[in-house]
Amino acid sequence: QFKAIVVRCNPGQIKADGGDQVKFDGAMRELRKLGIQVWPSPDVMEQMGAKDALVKVANLNIGLEDTLAYYTEAEFAAGFRKTMAFQPRVIKQNRGSSGEGIWIVKLKKDNYCSSYGERSCDNQEVLILMEANDNHAEEHTVAEFVEFCVNGRNTKSGKWTSKGDGKYLEGGKAAGGQLVDQRFCPRIVEGELRYNMAGDSLVGIIHKKPKEGGISAVSGTGSIYTFYGPE
Prior knowledge:
alpha+beta, six-stranded antiparallel sheet, 6 helices, 25% strand
């Protein structure tokens, strides 16, 4: 017998491994009804894990004011073409985990406009794409990238080496289908710091740095982890 469960499954991880996220969440909710604590609960994960939270904090000092969220193909096709013409971007799916469906996107010709809204990319402009789950890179046109993000692998989206299947808007907003569009921050290559806390006490710090030439510090991508004590 047990009194509590600590869930260590990222959103999307269960589905990626062949499981059913809906059934898993349902089982966790049933356990909570029986008085067994589940940390974190599915309802908390759904609120914390939604990428469009980045839009809600866009105007705070921890956010980026030009962060956008797309819930339909029309919104994404129009908005992305405009932001992409101005500066390198990061396009993030809401589902998935460990960097899958998070793309760092740059124009191959580096021909960005000088001010936002001055122009929009045309369908045949070529993009350099790097996916954060494994730091692999590939090239596609704007039209192919939009098609892959919306409808997945088909003749219009071309040939992809990504392990994912695209279709990031599938099911609509109610089902978690969304894409978030943020500017690319070059200092990401310096890595990130993770502070581990037990209550209000610091117990350790982890510096997660991407491998040379990469942008993702996700485990399994060759990233370097350095551990420090609380002192």
